[in-house]
Write a structure and sequence with these properties.
The protein is of the alpha/beta class and about 700 residues long. The chain folds into 4 domains: about 5-70, N-terminal domain of TfIIb (Single Sheet), CATH 2.20.25; about 80-150 and about 385-535, Rossmann fold, CATH 3.40.50; about 150-340, Dimethylsulfoxide Reductase, domain 2; about 580-695, Barwin-like endoglucanases, CATH 2.40.40. The protein has 25 helices and 28 strands. The strands form 7 sheets. The protein has a 7-stranded mixed beta sheet with strand order 5-4-18-17-16-6-7, with helices on both faces. The longest helix has 19 residues, at about 90-110. It is globular. The termini are far apart. Bound molecules: ligand MGD (2 copies), iron/sulfur cluster and molybdenum atom (MO). The site of one ligand MGD has 32 residues, from α6, α13 and β23.
Length: about 700
């Protein structure tokens, strides 16, 4: 039967007046997107079929969570604080106030009394411009980015063990891996397109080992799930290494030819037999052995990890131990054998690569390196400090101590997302002057003296770098709303008014400068990036590097380094007063501070943070599904709704930090990774009570002597 085709339907092209191919601005997978807009609004977004990381897929955020761009809450004009209130202002007024205050404070207290944060949600060019603002226009190395609270331990460890701060391979390695081991990472929620890729790999026969105190969705697709006590990853990985060695699964040729330091590790491993590891981690010895055999006997295997590794007191040491496991079995630098830390935000790899860190210029080259500093001095025509700057936690401490006077906060909601909210607020209140460059009013703008309206990822151009080290192009789908300007324009204008001309006409001039000044990115250019992007290092002729270390490691002597690091107990532990361990993390529908996803249809899917609790604990505490409960830690207290579920182990509770109404981070203390200060967001001893018990509850705590 013939189907009648209506003749008055517009073809798809007629319904849009603007299309673009760009890169998703949510997570570090780096999906390439096709956008269609009409009358200044996004009409629809679809996957780019040739996107190298997504191959025609997206998740619900990249595809549907774009409505925030035209939310009535968007910042559309600059705001200035007057008589305690933020009021709309002109750009002239706002910029005049910023320049006057930054110059006054610098004149009175020196450049190191000022600090800036770069946004890992913004482009490489925005972040690089921000480093130039702080280093050249202001004159301090006080600049950091949210990698500090995320994967800074990964960066530290990969540089120590292998040399470079990035994944050793690409997502395509997952298609070739015989086994994938996931430690403390939950890709179906945090990196859904990679999560789906792992499911497909599993359906084709790739064996999965998941290691997480919660039974994450991918555990249902795998062979072995290990549920360690939070904070005991080091014992788990040392136990895997012990079994690999004991049962003859070593790649001795690789160890001899490519590595150094194995003897010291071998000695240490003796103490980590599966029974000893079971004591510490709670993982049955037989399960640990099964996992070690799956990984050790496979011809190829990839390691993936996330914040369940890094956001711990010894996070950076556990990443070094994972590098040990890969080297012992020769599973690095070969197809299917990649180490893939799933980096968080769309451009958290890039913001650090661009030098938005207190101790490094682009490509992790030290601010104390005379040759490097001199090259930037020559390019920027300004004297540059050789003194390392402050990390984010050091900035807060310095603010409270009265040494830091001003902060320029670009795209980070520190009052919601950084640990120990009370301390962050004390720091913000101690500062004489705070600038927020934002797309929405958030918890942090409440403390700002000037708020600048900026543009979201769909409204700007430049590049992001994904979790595979891939530079990819960002193109504007629509224009910024109202008087909002692009981050790149704003930062350039502030530089100019502080007396420092960048000479850039567009982000592409900045990208050319980055390539010129950085050997690792020498061959990167807009034209070469095209639709497929390039994975650094990129040689001057444009050859890129999907796989690192196929022949040598990037360390002096070319050998990988084994680190002999024992298990040490986490910073916090359950006790009589705080008997449960709270683990915090994320869910699929919302993104970090939630400023964007809470202003899209995703808010109808999930509209609050929930506390996951095991039925046994719930019963013992007289908590029913849906009850509001009080959660108290050593530093703070919140109220939240309980969700009774077997996904969590008894003795543990889990929640997210997406809703400012909850203020989850009031509960997080100051404990942090020993090498990088990444907060211990994953191990917080708490006491959970039904709200009905709350009145009796306060005296109980006061009683503790
Ligand atoms: N939908 C969504 N996607 C996101 C984000 C978001 O907010 N929402 N945020 C982005 C960002 S910034 C990041 S960094 C990534 C993070 O993505 P992931 O790294 O996957 O982060 P989390 O879900 O916080 O933590 C991962 C897992 O670690 C487990 N875990 C906690 N403690 C331990 C431990 O001691 N040992 C082990 N083995 N596991 C442990 C937790 O139970 C959790 O399942 O996601 C990115 N993608
Ligand atoms: N309890 C707990 N806390 C955590 C974590 C955890 O697991 N548990 N995870 C931590 C991790 S891994 C991270 S990365 C941090 C993330 O913490 P944040 O970096 O603070 O969170 P985001 O929501 O990613 O974005 C920050 C801000 O950038 C703004 N923004 C977005 N795009 C742009 C842009 O293009 N330009 C400008 N100017 N602004 C923009 C958003 O509106 C938002 O206010 O949270 C950390 N906090
Ligand atoms: S997986 Fe990540 S990059 Fe891809 S569409 Fe979803 S949020 Fe965007
Ligand atoms: Mo992150």
């Amino acid at each position: 039967m013939a189907i009648a085709i209506p003749t008055d339907v517009k073809t798809s092209d007629e319904r849009f007046d603007r299309t673009a191919t760009t890169t998703c601005g949510y997570c570090g997978v780096g999906c390439r997107l096709e956008t269609r807009a009409s009358g200044g609004r996004i009409v629809s977004i679809g996957p780019a079929l040739d996107g190298p990381a997504n191959e025609g897929h997206t998740c619900l955020k990249g595809r549907f969570a774009h409505g925030f761009t035209r939310s009535p809450d968007r910042l559309r004009t600059p705001l200035i604080r007057e008589d305690g209130e933020l009021r709309p202002a002109t750009w002239e007024e706002a910029l005049d106030r910023i320049v006057a205050e930054l110059e006054r404070i610098k004149g009175a207290h020196g450049a190191d009394a000022l600090a800036g944060l770069a946004s890992s949600r913004a482009t490489n060019e925005d972040c690089y411009a921000m480093t130039r603002l702080m280093r050249a226009a202001v004159g301090t190395n006080n600049i950091d980015n949210c990698s500090r609270v995320c994967h800074s331990p990964t960066s530290f460890a990969l540089r120590k063990s292998f040399g470079l701060s990035g994944a050793t391979g690409s997502f395509t390695d997952l298609d070739q891996a015989e086994v994938a081991l996931l430690l403390g990472v939950n890709p179906t929620q945090g990196h859904p397109v990679v999560g789906a890729r792992i499911k497909q790999a599993a359906l084709r026969g790739c064996k999965l080992i998941t290691i997480d105190p919660r039974r994450i969705e991918l555990a249902d697709y795998g062979q072995v799930h290990l549920a360690p006590r939070p904070g005991t990853n080091a014992a788990v990985v040392l136990g895997l290494c012990h079994v690999v060695r004991r049962d003859g699964m070593l790649d001795e040729g690789f160890i001899a030819a490519r590595t150094e330091g194995y003897e010291a590790l071998e000695e240490l491993l003796a103490g980590y037999d599966p029974q000893a590891v079971e004591e510490v981690t709670g993982i049955p010895a037989a399960d640990l052995e099964a996992a070690a055999h799956l990984y050790g006997e496979a011809g190829s295997g990839s390691l993936l990890w996330g914040l369940g590794v890094t956001e711990h007191k010894y996070g950076s040491e556990v990443v070094q131990l994972l590098c040990n496991l890969a080297m012992m079995t020769g599973k690095v630098g070969k197809p299917g054998s990649a180490l893939l830390p799933l980096r968080g935000q769309n451009n958290v790899q890039g913001s650090s690569d661009m030098g938005a860190l207190p101790d490094t210029y682009t490509a992790y080259r030290s601010v104390e390196d005379e040759e490097v500093a001199a090259s930037f001095e020559a390019a920027w025509g300004a004297p540059l400090s050789r003194r390392k700057g402050l990390t984010i936690p050091q900035m807060f401490d310095a603010a409270v101590a009265g040494e830091l006077k001003a902060m320029y906060i670009f795209g980070e909601d520190i009052a919601q997302t950084d640990p120990d909210t009370a301390h962050v607020i004390a720091a913000l209140e101690s500062l004489e002057f705070v600038v927020c460059q934002e797309i929405f009013p958030n918890e942090t703008t409440k403390f700002a003296d000037v708020v600048l309206p900026a543009s979201a990822f769909l409204e700007k151009e430049g590049t992001f770098i994904n979790a595979e080290r891939r530079f990819q192009i960002v193109e504007p789908a629509i224009d910024p709303p109202g008087e909002a300007r692009t981050d790149f324009e704003i930062i350039g204008e502030v530089c100019r008014r502080l007396g420092h001309e960048t000479g850039w006409r567009s982000p592409w001039d900045a990208l050319d400068e980055i390539a010129r000044l950085t050997p690792e990115y020498a061959g990167v250019s807009r034209a070469r990036l095209g639709r497929q992007g390039l994975q650094w290092p990129v040689r001057p002729d444009g050859t890129d590097s999907p796989t690192l270390y196929d022949t040598v490691f990037d360390r002096p002597g070319g050998r990988g380094h084994f680190a002999a690091l024992p298990y040490k107990a986490p910073g916090d532990a359950a006790d009589q007063d705080f008997p449960l361990i709270l683990v915090t993390g994320r869910i699929l529908q919302h993104y970090n501070a939630g400023t964007m996803t809470r202003r899209t249809g995703n808010a109808t899917l999930v509209d609050r943070d929930l506390l996951e609790i095991h039925p046994l604990d719930a019963e013992r505490l007289w908590v029913k599904d849906g009850d509001r409960v009080s959660v108290r830690s050593r530093v703070g207290r919140i109220e939240i709704e309980a969700k009774v579920t077997e996904r969590i182990e008894p003795g543990h509770v889990f929640t997210t930090f997406h809703f400012p109404e909850t203020r989850t981070n009031l509960l997080v203390g100051q404990s942090a990774d020993v090498n990088t200060s990444c907060p211990e967001y994953k191990v917080i001893a708490v006491d959970v009570r039904p709200m009905s018990e709350e009145p009796a509850f306060i005296p109980v705590v006061a009683d503790v002597s």
